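Ligand-bound model needed. shikimate-3-phosphate.
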Amino acid sequence: MRVEPVRALRGELTVPGDKSISHRAVLLGALAEGRTEITGFLPGVDCLSTIACLRRLGVAIEQEGSRVTVHGAGWYALREPEDVLDVGNSGTTIRLLAGVLATQPFHSVLVGDASIARRPMRRVTAPLRAMGAHIDGRADGEYTPLAIRGGPLRAIHHVSPVASAQVKSALLLAGLQADGETAVTEPQRSRDHTERMLRAFGAELTLCGTTVRVRGGQRLTGQRVEVPGDISSAAFFLVAAALVPGSDLVVRGVGLNPTRTGILDVLKAMGAEVEVEETGEACGEPVGNVRVRHAPLAATAIGGDLIPRLIDELPVIAVLATQAEGVTVIRDAQELRVKETDRIATVVAELSKMGARIEATPDGMIIHGPTPLVGARCDSHGDHRIGMALAVAGLIADGPTEIARAEAVAVSFPDFFDRLRTVAK
Ligand code: S3P
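Prediction:
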């Protein structure tokens, strides 16, 4: 893909449905009793992997673009799959499904692509084993393929060393069928879409500080789910508008869950003009419109509790920081090293090719700005968010930028480049 510099980004757009919420909607629909109707579903490759795995477990699902109907027959209607469950590139699929499969009295095997094969799984397999599930995998349950034989589980209180919604969600799902009350404590709060959606499907949970508790033996009932636009997809446009002089862009219908809006805090802290208008709620999630206008940008410090609220936006925030006056320091973000790629290494390598003054640290990045960027031959490394972050960098570079393996964007945003063309002036 070739990206040319633009004069400005102007107008309005919507973005596809939230990836995290789309996964959860089909998954909870599959475990619930009765029909679940989903609108605004993200038909990206990752969420289609979740549908494919659930079909292989015997769940009837109709999907046409962003409309999905799931015919839930209850938690124990899942069947032993005849073949492996392939999660593709999707960490959310494998970790949440591991929690569900831990409750099922049959054998199943989870596999994924080369990126999934490198991602840490013991963070879910260890606590699920402690609940009583039989799980094996390479390096003692750290890596795929994972073989799971579930069954009756006992509740545990898991104190997670990382703030991870995937870990928390896997354990809450397993806990819904465990004997007793399961609790998960995190160092900081991660995104809470599972908790919100479980409540919408009729389950009871309690939250105290960063500890979530769920009683076993609860049933879910099928629902209508309207998935809001993905703020992580909107982020590429919001940052682009903040970067390109003369830009004025509105993204409509985007999810504004406070566990996800760290990007808006950073845009404001750096000096961009940001207006947020909350317009309503869908399935327990706040939704609204976000307008961003370009303004001179200044460096900021990013760390601590803010990190889980913008973890997926850090690649594009690094692009933003290249144009901010001063030194932007990102710390406490070591989780970036175990995403679809090592996002500290891939961001630093690719933005350096474009002339950015950026260095890696063990848990983040240090970025000096403002530094003019030059078009270069870059590579997404097969990571959707790296591909889109590089496209945003290409909009402000001097000369064209070539992005190899740009098709990776389809994991979360299949028509990203088309929508970019509609607002680029
Ligand atoms: C996600 C949780 C986050 C995030 C990922 C989606 C989810 O991962 O980075 O893109 O849907 O639960 P971790 O749970 O590993 O932090």
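Residues 20, 91-92, 164-166, 169, 190-191, 311-312, 335 surround shikimate-3-phosphate (CB under 6 Å).
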